[in-house]
Write a structure and sequence with these properties.
The complex is a heterodimer. Chain A is mainly α. Helices cover 66% and strands 5% of the residues of chain A. In chain A, the strands form three sheets. Chain A has a three-stranded mixed beta sheet with strand order 1-2-6. Chain A has a three-stranded antiparallel beta sheet with strand order 3-5-4. Chain B is of the alpha+beta class. Chain B has a single domain, classed as Potassium Channel Kv1.1, Chain A (2-Layer Sandwich). The two termini of chain B are 26 Å apart. The chains are: A mainly alpha, B alpha+beta. The A-B interface holds A 9, 13-14, 16-17, 19-20, 45-52, 54-55, 58, 136-137, 140, 143-144, 147 and B 13, 29-30, 33-34, 36, 39-45, 49-53, 55, 90, 93, 97, 99. Chain B: Belongs to the SKP1 family.
């Protein structure tokens, strides 16, 4: 070696000046280089001087012999690879490895196949590694050539050239004629190994990875275009194809064999596995592609089937399998950002469950016990008790409905939070389904209002502020879904009115909170009237106090004076007909006109207050609604106390009951009065009269009167006597008012409400149309429809037919006219 | 000499030797590869490079440049390095050779 180096040095030692002019013999210099290259390939480089080789190559290039050198090097490499390296690898090929379709018919066990495959992979890897290292060294030595010659002559660098040679000489050359090339064998071996890995056998990922690296490092052509890597061109396609086939088959098998949860877990595991495999065994660049393949095969094509399986989403929801649901979500989210399948399934489930709740509520409210049904037929006068039972039943149904809907909502919210990663699209879908469910139930508005009513009266007792907040929040939540907000408003007003006037509400503060929440949710106009009701209450209180002070200031301390407390209500804001329960509107009008007759002592107070009120507010008309009042009276029962001593009770009863009782004041003991007589003397509407008499004469705890004959019903011709023998252990007695319950409307009431509601909607629609037309002057029919609907959507969802009717009526009344020669049907506003 | 020390020796054709910092010398791609231990050439074993076609005068200037470069690597407004006119051609050739 040293003699060789010495010879080279002796020959080419340059004169001190003019490196370029040195006389260089190409053949000799090349001989030096060739010998050195051979040494490098046999890993004996340490004895070589880099400087010397570099200098030799440098000189050849300087002498413009770069092309010759390039060709020589290429030829040298080609020979080396063709003769030495290929031999080494082909020696390792066992016969079965050479048969391309060996996978099916191979006789050897997988283990053997794996081992021989691994040996082959190892050899190839080593050959490749060696080649790379050597070529790295060669390239360094020939750096000057690369830099000067290759760049100037647009040749691929010697490194790239030699990589190409490796590809052609080793991978692309058939082992023998008629046999596959090493590349094909390599591909098949790798695919086999991956298949083994999928089947759960251990393989050596590093070995495969190294070979994949090799394929990634090689290109189709010398140009080294990025997407023409050998890996992409020849391996990846096959890999994806095989995987797709494998997973399609596996997916179908699993769909048949296992339940949805298992399937999801499996699919998830497979995806993760492929991900890992790409990292550890194949190339990162394949990850998205193989994931797509797996997703396609295992999820996208199967999702629908999966969700609809017996053990699919329905089952998971029913059994609260949150984890599995979240898996399904995860999988679906991978293939479809909109998650349409899952969304559809969830919506279907909600609708189904919601419909069940609705049906249950309807069933519960329309299937009263037979007795009550009978009573209902006989009319409301006959058996208020049983009809009250029916009403109670309905109320319970209403409360149950609300609770059920809330539970449903809670449940799906829970699922959404825990399993669906709070996904936006799903939330929208779930909300829409909830709204559908709630709106599909025609009594929704009433029931929600009833729910709030119930809570205001009883529910919030013994509850902390937080719990109350929660209850209110729930109610608002339902309200948000509600479409017909105007109907809700009607009901709520009615219920609120009862609560306020009858002092049923537990806490005015909570009421006010509720209103303010509604204000936030539904806007100012919605709560305007509700707030006005509260204002009336406050004003009335002031008024009562004012009146009391006024009376006191008059100075005549009359012990027999009747104390008066009054609520003055603005007739527009209060739904007062709510208290004429059970009457048709005709009757209501009538009773509104006819004034009951007050006994003189009460009448005096009434007059006094009217005077006082007119002094303060002139021009206002007071209408007395005595059917809503109540009274505290002291009644003395001759034989009420122990040992037959007289005893005085404080009785709280309705105004009507007070009137009735006062009648007996003037009567001699033991005398009786007939129903007709009472009616004539008090002018109380027959309905209310019957009801009050019932509570006074029939209810066992408050039997101040004795009825003749003794029966449960109050009938014309009955006579009443004061019950001298009334006994009670309490000083204070409250006379229940039969009808003042928390209840669902009866059918008649409902019809009425609906009718009224339709009327008020009609006005709202008309107002909206006029508003729009006034602003636009001329507008096409369709856009008028759309604008009207969008304007009113905050209150309710208007009926198109209704809008059309209203437009017609406005045209009749000459607010609008049709534009005759317009291309589309249009209207003009007539000022 | 250890396989990889911080200093390397550059020897000119007329026998002058210069001990320079490895990192500075490796500015030259040729020298860097000569000394790359993973390639395993003789130079990397001895940490010594013998240049048969560069004389001491030029190699001195080359080493001067190595340090000059190292010093001003990251600064702006670098003062010009003083190069005697008669050395210009030879320096250029050496630079080409060393791929500086």
């Amino acid at each position: 070696m040293s003699s060789l180096a010495g010879r080279g040095r002796g020959k080419i030692r340059p004169p001190r000046r003019g490196l370029a002019s040195a006389d260089v013999d190409f053949e000799t210099t090349w001989a030096v280089l060739e010998r050195a290259f051979r040494e490098i390939h046999t890993k004996n480089a340490s004895a070589l001087s880099f400087e010397e080789l570099y200098r030799n190559a440098y000189k050849i290039v300087l002498k413009k012999k770069g092309d010759e050198l390039y060709a020589k090097v290429a030829k040298f490499e080609e020979q080396w690879l063709g003769e030495n390296v290929r031999l080494q690898i082909t020696r390792l090929l066992t016969p079965p490895l050479m048969v391309l379709d060996a996978s099916g018919r191979s006789l050897e066990s997988t283990a053997e196949k794996r081992i021989s495959g691994e040996v082959f992979l190892k050899a190839l890897k080593e050959a490749w590694d060696d080649h790379q290292v050597c070529m790295g060294m060669l390239t360094d030595v020939l750096m000057y050539m690369d830099r000067v010659y290759c760049t100037d002559h647009r040749q691929p660098s010697i490194f790239a050239k030699s990589m190409g040679l490796f590809r052609d000489q080793i991978l692309r050359t058939p082992v023998k004629t008629d046999l596959p090339t090493l590349l094909d064998i390599l591909k098949r071996i790798i695919l086999d190994q991956i298949q083994m890995d999928r089947d759960g056998e251990a393989i050596n990922p590093h070995l495969i990875k190294a070979n994949i690296y090799m394929l990634e490092g090689l290109y189709e052509s010398e140009q080294e275009v990025e997407d023409e890597k050998l890996y992409l061109q020849s391996f990846e396609q096959d890999f994806l194809g095989t995987s797709a086939a494998f997973y399609r088959e596996e997916g179908e098998r699993l769909m048949k064999e296992s339940d949805a949860g298992t399937y999801c877990r499996h699919a998830k595991r497979r995806i993760d596995e492929e991900h890992d495999r790409c990292r550890s065994t194949l190339s990162e660049s394949t990850t998205p592609k193989i994931q797509r393949v797996v997703e396609d095969e295992l999820i996208r094509h199967k999702m629908k089937g999966l969700i609809e399986m017996d053990s699919g989403v329905q089952y998971m929801v029913d059994n609260d399998k949150l984890q599995e649901l979240s898996l399904v979500f995860d999988l679906e989210a991978r293939v479809d950002p909109k998650k349409s399948e899952l969304t559809r399934a969830m919506q279907k489930i909600i609708t189904e469950m919601g419909t069940n709740i609705n049906n249950a509520a309807i069933a519960a409210s329309t299937a009263p016990p037979p007795a009550a049904a009978l009573a209902e037929k006989e009319g409301e006068k006959s058996k208020p008790a049983s009809s009250a039972a029916k009403i109670n039943q309905q109320t319970v149904a209403a409360l149950k409905w609300v609770e059920d809907v809330l539970a449903l909502k809670d449940r799906f919210d829970g699922i959404w939070k825990k399993a669906f990663e709070e996904d936006q699209t799903l939330q929208v879908a779930l909300n829409r389904s909830m709204a559908d469910v709630i709106n599909a139930f025609n009594r929704g508005s009433e029931y929600i209002s009833l729910y709030i009513d119930e809570n205001m009266k009883k529910g919030i007792r013994n509850k902390t502020q937080a719990e109350i907040d929660q209850t209110l929040e729930k109610a608002i939540l339902l309200l948000r879904y509600l479409q017909d907000k105007d109907i809700f408003e009607t009901y709520y007003k009615k219920h609120l009115c009862k609560r306020l006037l009858l002092n049923k509400s537990q806490s005015i503060d909570v009421e006010k909170q509720m209103i303010s929440r509604m204000k936030i949710e539904l806007g100012n106009s919605f709560t305007l009237k509700l707030e006005a009701m509260f204002k009336d209450m406050t004003l009335s209180e002031e008024l009562t106090n004012g009146y009391r002070n006024y009376i006191n200031s008059l100075g005549q301390a009359d012990p027999k004076r009747v104390d008066l407390s009054i609520n003055v209500l603005t007739s527009m804001t209060w739904p007062l007909e709510a208290f004429r329960g059970g009457q048709t509107s005709d009757q209501a009008n009538e009773s509104g006109k006819t004034q009951v007759v007050f006994p003189p002592q009460v009448e005096r107070v009434k007059m006094g207050f009217e005077r006082y009120y007119n002094e303060k507010h002139s021009g206002r008309c007071l209408t007395w609604l005595s059917n809503m009042g109540d009274a505290d009276i002291k009644a003395t029962f001759p034989n009420g106390g122990k040992d037959g001593k007289p005893r005085t009770h404080e009785v709280n009863c309705s105004t009507y009951a007070m009137l009735i009782l006062l009648l007996f004041n003037d009567l001699p003991a033991g005398a009786s009065i007939s129903l007709e007589e009472i009616q004539a003397r008090t002018n109380i509407p027959p309905n209310d009269l019957a009801r009050n008499l019932q509570s006074l004469a029939v209810a066992p705890k408050t039997r101040f009167l004795v009825k003749e004959p003794m029966s449960r019903d109050v009938k014309p011709g009955d006579r009443f006597t004061f019950n001298d023998n009334f006994k009670s252990q309490f000083v204070k007695i409250k006379v229940g008012v039969v009808s003042a319950g928390n209840k669902v409307e009866g059918d008649r009431e409902r019809k009425e409400t609906e009718k009224k509601n339709n009327d008020s909607r009609g006005f709202a629609v008309e107002a909206a149309i006029v508003r729009i037309m006034k602003q636009r002057k001329e507008l096409a029919h369709t856009s008028l429809l759309n604008e009207t609907i969008s304007q009113l959507s905050a209150q309710f969802k208007p009926d198109v037919a209704m809008i059309k009717k209203k437009v017609e009526s406005l045209i009749e009344r000459e607010y609008l006219e049709r534009i005759d020669d317009a291309p589309v049907p249009s209207y003009r506003y007539l000022a | 000499m250890s396989a990889e020390s911080d200093y390397v020796t550059l020897i000119s054709s007329d026998g002058y030797s210069f001990v320079v910092q490895r990192s500075s010398a490796c500015i030259s791609a040729a020298i860097r590869r000569m000394l790359d231990p993973s390639l395993g050439f003789a130079e990397s074993k001895t940490n010594t490079c013998r240049f048969e076609n560069i004389n001491g005068l030029v190699l001195e200037k080359v080493c001067e440049y190595f340090y000059y470069n190292e010093k001003h690597k990251n600064s702006k407004d670098v003062p010009d390095m003083d190069v005697p006119a008669e050395l210009c051609l030879e320096l250029l050739m050496a630079a080409d050779y060393l791929n500086v």
